[in-house]
Amino acid sequence: MRTIEWDVNKQYLKIIDQRQLPEKFEYINLDNYKAVAEAIRSMAVRGAPAIGVTAAYGLVLAGFQSSATNPNDLFTDLQTAAKVLEDARPTAVNLPWALKRMLATVSNSDGTVLNLQQTLLQEADAMAEEDIQVNKAIAAHGAALIEDGDTIIHHCNTGALATVDWGTALGVIRFAFEQGKHIHVLVDETRPRLQGARLTAWELTQLGIPFDIICDNAAGYFLSTAQVQKVFFGADRVAANGDVANKIGSYMLALAANDNHIPVYSVFPTSTVDLSIQNGKQILIEEREQDEVLALTLKGRRVTPEGASARNPAFDVTPARLISAYITELGIVEQPFSTKFTEYLQKIED
Ligand code: MRU
Questions:
Q1: Domain segments of the chain as ranges
Q2: pTM beyond 0.85, yes or no
């Protein structure tokens, strides 16, 4: 299953429409960069690595759409498109990371407009392939932390759907399961968009990994009654000091896990680290429309009173002190981080 695929013959991007899952498994075709930006904004595609690669293909489409007759004008059109794509969702750094990489590829290449359009496509394809390989490397490192018989709380969706394929935190769980370890996953439903109840539960069903869905607010109960050995989640942006912005609810989960001495693992590709951000307080947190909270229906009936208002931050920041280890394609870094995290980040810069 690939979340994102370029159709070579038709020259458009195909993505799984995650808004329809688990009811319907449907691809949608995106043939211009504005449609790509809208698919990211409306979360037809979501998950930090997946939106990065999707945005990269958005720039491929912008390149093909451009009427520029020389490389300079093409670059100007690409910059305009990159701004629209970047504004689609502000928190996951993979989005600007991918766009910057695409623009750099063009500015470092010579050739005609036609050549540069092909260069863009090659770069986006390379990024998509790298994402899969990086996820598999992450999974191989991380699986060593999982023991036979573990029950793991997992937050949001970090599986194949959140990436091009394979996944990050859920990819680690999958790898360990395929090694023959007996694992049980407690799937946080992940209000308000229910990425856990809808998407993670769907992926675990496909993979045959045993799980139970739990309400987000049940995590503390399971953690405090010795029913859980580990907590796994992903990341949308990691600051230079190791603070992790991830799906709303991650912070409360990490607090409850720490209070019960249960290790918390944050799993992400190094493209999710933002060295320009010193600490989590500087990370811009996306606040989404109120209706994602208010329009909840139970048995077809809206549960909130007419006229009620809501706040809907999509992410929160878990301070580095609450994270037991980070798992990336470079390996595992465990607490205490003081010097090690800096050395580790150095490797990313090199
Ligand atoms: O709002 P979403 O669904 O895009 O949020 C996704 C998450 O927070 C994931 O945990 C994160 O992107 C890591 S996914 C590999």
A1: 4-135, 145-349
A2: yes
